[in-house]
Design a protein that fits this description.
Elements (H helix, E strand, L loop, with lengths): L2 H14 L54 E9 L10 E5 L26 E5 L5 E7 L4 E3 L2 E3 L2 E7 L4 E7 L10 H6 L14 E3 L10 E4 L2 E2 L4
Parallel strand pairs: 1-10, 1-11
Antiparallel strand pairs: 1-4, 2-3, 2-7, 5-6, 7-8, 9-10
């Protein structure tokens, strides 16, 4: 399957909600859900968007090579606080490559390897059930002054009434406890850290690609 055809299939799968990865334990009859944590936009939001912004960040048109790193199928739902889905929410994600470098002119980490085959940013509209799906790689950690940023993915979500900027962190990472940006965003709520900032990672669990990981991350927008 060509790169273009595969990305088109991925986007169609996301729109239709195909695959077991979209089965959500959060039903509309559930108790009120805690809204996701608002977090800083950060310095690496791509004000100048890349030429490609589809749901497959691991392949670029005209590139023979694929993005380096552990491939991750990133899925979830956009929900209101009562557990009902937020249809057609606009979802932007951006992240560092597997080495820890952003595709952004403001990333001055010249000693960190760039990856010209990694898209770095994607834009998707959730389906009628609030579901989304991306194919990406696990981001690398990177230095931020005197400390290291733990692997994370940035989200900017626009629902019907609510916009939320947040970040998803990978669980059980050794750098979580010393990430000062994360501590700032959590206003000291770090012992323990809130469960809803973490993706649920299943190694080898991807429904799109054999051997790839599955990472589930639901986002709660409050009023939706």
């Amino acid at each position: 399957m060509s790169n273009t055809s595969r990305r088109a299939w991925l986007m169609q799968a996301a729109a239709l909600g195909l695959g077991a990865g979209f089965v959500s334990p959060r039903l509309a009859s559930a108790a009120t859900l805690e809204p996701s944590w608002p977090m800083d936009l950060g310095p690496f939001y791509p004000v100048e968007k890349p030429l490609e912004s589809d749901a497959d960040l691991t392949r670029l048109d005209g590139h023979a090579k694929r993005a380096q790193g552990q491939v991750v199928e990133l899925t979830g739902r956009i929900l209101a606080h009562d557990g009902t889905p937020v249809p057609r929410a606009k979802i932007e994600i951006w992240q560092a490559n597997s080495f820890g470098r952003y595709h952004h002119h403001g990333d001055g980490h010249d000693t960190i390897q760039p990856d010209p085959d990694f898209q770095g940013y994607a834009l998707q509209e959730a389906d009628d059930q609030g579901r989304f799906r991306f194919l990406t790689v696990k981001p690398g950690a990177y230095p931020a002054g005197s400390f290291m940023r733990s692997p994370h993915v940035h989200f900017d979500v626009q629902g019907r009434y609510t916009r939320l900027v947040t970040q998803m962190y990978y669980p059980n990472e050794p750098l979580l406890g010393q990430d000062k940006v994360l501590k700032h965003d959590l206003f000291g709520h770090t012992n323990p850290m809130p469960a809803n900032i973490f993706g649920a990672l299943t190694p080898g669990g991807s429904t799109l690609e054999p051997g790839a990981a599955l990472c589930r991350f639901d986002i709660v927008l409050g009023d939706g």
